[in-house]
Amino acid sequence: MQRPYDLPSLSSLNCFEAAARKLSFKAAASELNVTPTAVSHQIRALETELGQQLFRRQHRGVELTEAGAYLFNAVQRSFEAISDVVRDMRGPVAEDDVMVLASTAVSSLWLTPKLTEFWLNHSDINVSQIVSDAVDLEATVDLSLHYGEFPEGDESCTQLFQDRICAVGSEAFAARYAITSAHDLHRVPLIHITRERHRWTEWPDWLSELGAPQPTGKRITVNNYMIGLQMAKEGVGALLGWDGLVGHLIEAGELVALGSESVVSPQCFYIKVHRRASAKAKKFRDWLVAQSVTKLDG
Fold it and tell me: What per-residue confidence (pLDDT) applies to 97?
């Protein structure tokens, strides 16, 4: 019997939508809880059925072809429409007023300390967090916090702040390696952060911006900024620190700046409002933005 809609497999469309939205088969696989190979097979089957190449495979990811962008626009609008109808049919449910997605570092060092102040003046709004460094869970939250290039033209995103980045470590570490400036850092153990949801600015970029030599010392790699921060406190190595995240630790003497140099972060911290966001979620967003503006003005 002929189907009333001329559609390919819904599984392949689901894989395609996730891969196109994230421009990554690996990230799509993580979201869908399948393997990257399974996503790749679904995409190739869809491309074969349509007789069109939907992605250009690049060395460090994928990008949409013109045909892929055309299909993605239609699929995303359709999924959003279905999601809205389903949400309306389910009706109101007992849940948190505001759900925020943040990395461990941004939650621990920036967001969580601000919640107490927010609740003192807005006790009627309950804010909860999903803290994740590796998994993208944006579909389940009202707001998400990001570090990266600001998506110009995206009205759902608002910049919070753009920090300066300095090198930090323990006082004992600075003395042990006789560090007085950024030009001393190439020869000392450096802590590198990899595989987080954010792509943190890295040591080669920072040193190059200052005209300092590239790293030749011991490389220490961790996949979580907070672990790297604890290692820096314990004198294991030097770490790059954003003043909005680690400034209070320097003031408290838990860390010291390794030299006086700093650079303006090439990327910014920003907040994104998602489709499910309520008026209370947007009110919390506005409050966070106002706090950031106050910080900058101060």
Answer: 78
